[in-house]
């Protein structure tokens, strides 16, 4: 990912927060042709730099057999089309506001059944954490154990993090306010919430 300096994250924890809030990632491995799988990948700790991400996918998916040494994991955050009608001036051109984090690092396929079960359970707990009430998976542990052989878990040891948080920062405040309202009016409220 090419990073644009004006679109760096506002704070040091923004990248980790985006990853936590958007764990349904795109896992990409090189090769001819490159292979990509949409799958949950979680950040178990507080920081992204130097972290180890945990993910899993169906064992029937042949992608895990072609991982190679490193993976690219793409986390997409809120995004929305910005129409020139929101700017209040012409000439103007449209753009897209978005947040994305790309993580690259060595991958390690987990072969131990109990460790795989642990990754699946941690993924469920991470997904349940923001819910109120959160579902308690304790009573379903045997069900998880019965299906875990159909899953391949993996770790990605974060080597590099790249991101863009592009939310009309290059526009004056009055234009940002109009873009924010336009995005809310057209169903892009999550992207609008990032416009300061």
From TrEMBL:
Descriptive protein name: FMN-binding negative transcriptional regulator
SUPFAM superfamilies registered for this protein in UniProt: FMN-binding split barrel
Pfam family, one: FMN_bind_2
Basic and acidic residues bias: start-end ranges: 172-187
Gene source species: Amycolatopsis acidicola
Lineage per the UniProt record: Bacteria, Bacillati, Actinomycetota, Actinomycetes, Pseudonocardiales
Region called Disordered, residue ranges: 172-196
Protein origin, superkingdom: Bacteria
Listed Gene3D superfamilies: Electron Transport, Fmn-binding Protein, Chain A (2.30.110.10)
